[in-house]
Amino acid sequence: MSPIKNNSQGMSVIVKTVAKFVVPPIVLFGIYMVLHGHLTPGGGFPGGVIIASSFILLTLAFGREVAFQKLKRSTASLLESIGGLIFLSLALLGIGFGGWFFLNFLPKGQPLRILSAGFIPLANIAIGIKVGGGIFAVFLVLIMFRVKK
Amino acid sequence: MWQIYALAFLMIAGSLVAVHTRYLLSAVISLAVVGLALCVAFLYLQAPDCAITQIVVEVLALIILIRATGVEKDISEIRDKREVFVIETAVIFIVVFAFFIFKALNYLPQFGHPLMRVSQEYINKGLAQTGSANLVTSILLDFRAYDTLGEATVLFTAILGAIIVLREVGRKEK
After folding, report:
1. How far is CA B126 from CA A141, B1, B109, B119, B121, in A?
2. B25 Cα to chain A: minimum distance (Å)
3. Which of A42-46, A117-121, B110-114 holds the top average pLDDT?
4. Looking at this predicted complex, what is its ipTM?
5. A116 contacts B131? CB cut-off 8 A
6. What CA–CA distance (Å, rounded) separates B82 from B72?
7. Which of A90, B68, B78, B113 is the most exposed place for a label (fewest CB within 10 A)?
8. pTM (2 decimals)?
9. What residues does each domain of chain A span?
């Protein structure tokens, strides 16, 4: 259960303990920023990067094995592709509903509610998934790459 | 207003240090100073969306660059002398660029007084047409969603290229 004691990889015990307490609020803040992108400053891109940075903190603090148990690189790449496809299909649904590319086809709702602004929250979620998975995948690729000797 | 000038001075100083320092790690940290000063400048210019994105991406890029430089043994000392021709070319280009940008900046509207009619249209009708309280998001994902799709494609292509170049499967043994 406890990867802190068993794993000798990663950084010191202080960093691991702090990271264990700090990672869940970071993920929560990222999700808040994605979901409230149409109400408050922020949106899909910074929210996705915040979620990806929490996984990066896990990777740096606990070593690559513990982080790979949470999210593999192939899963991260898959998340990025899925997010991009959701965003593109939202755009294409506008044509399907008898309009044009990127038609805001959902009802607008009452402003300043979380269920408002048509498909903008859905597009924010799609971009958040895409950016979070993509940034984490490129981090793993850039940092964890070692040439075998 | 003087805060913007102070931040601009800090950014110029940070980039100069990044260019002229002899060690890669110092250059990376000076670049981080430039990015953080840019974030504060965005806050002074009342653009919190840009400030949030800037600070998040800046911290991420700083982590990646610090890991990439290799902190344990920084052997990236630059010993070569700078060539005279390079410096002369750079000075000539800077002078030409400064002249033309001075000519161009005279035609811009004054600071803090936008005269653009398109943005005024968005400000007036954005909430009614999209229902989004955050006007930046309504422009990014409704009025200019096609640009956002292009931006997402650029990011996708960049990550695809990085994954393909740095892959582990299928690499030839040396």
Report:
1. 40, 29, 24, 10, 8
2. 16
3. A42-46
4. 0.78
5. yes
6. 27
7. B113
8. 0.78
9. 3-143
pLDDT one-digit tens code per residue, B40-49: 998 888 888 8
Q: What is the pLDDT of residues A27-58, one digit of tens each?
A: 999 999 888 888 888 888 899 999 988 888 88
Instruction: Compare A25 and B46 and report the one with higher pLDDT.
Output: A25
* Separation between Cα atoms, residue B130 and residue A35, nearest integer Å: 16
Distance from CA of B107 to the nearest CA of A (A): 32
User: For residue B93, what are its two tokens?
Assistant: 């280009």
A-B contacts (CB, under 8 Å):
130
Window 23-62 of B, Cβ < 8 Å to A: 48-49, 52-53, 56-57, 59-60
Is B146 within 8 Å of A42 when comparing Cβ atoms?
A: no
Instruction: Indicate the SS3 state at residue B72.
Output: coil
